[in-house]
Amino acid sequence: MSRLADTLNQAGYAVANIDYPSTEADPDELAAILGVAVESCCSHAQRVHLVTHSLGGIVARAYLAENRPANLGRVVMIAPPNRGSEIVDLLGGLRLFRRLFGPTAVALRTGDSGLTQALPPVDYEVGVIAGDRPVNPLGAFVIPGADDGAVSVEGTKLEGMTDFITVHRSHSFIAGAPEVGRQTVHFLRDGAFEGQVKMEVGGVWKR
Predict the structure, then answer these.
(1) How far apart are CA 44 and CA 41, in angstroms?
(2) Residue 124: CATH number of its domain
(3) What predicted TM-score, i.e. pTM, was given to this entire model?
């Protein structure tokens, strides 16, 4: 996230690049860690925007479902598994997978039993950026439709999202892509991605 943080700094935002033990803690613990970090860095800010990558989007959703800051601004989710992960469906039962990726990743199953389905719809401004350039060959056999190697384009979409775009990037490197930085700044400033039409929260995004 360092390149994206630099882009946001250059655009005039004060950035706190928050780290958390994604492979060690469960979802509630990660949401609590995010809450402490936001309170520590940003409680006196005029507005607090959240920009996330991958699992970070789910952690942000879990945090905001219970502890929304009064000064919350806009949220950008980059390659979030908002509908779970087919790769977790396939490999999540393996001991090695659980050991490498931790309890929160294992909870990212698709379907009604998954973590993401238990979270409420959003009622704040959210822009979602998906990737469609897979580098993981497993994705072609497991993930339906276009994907970034880890998450399908359709799987990033979120009920109530304000705007949505797709870029030609893979999952691991999408956050550092120049066009993603530009679009993130555009959404934080205007509530819509560049080239998109701004919609009200809960509306239908369109070009």
Answers:
(1) 8
(2) 3.40.50.1820
(3) 0.89
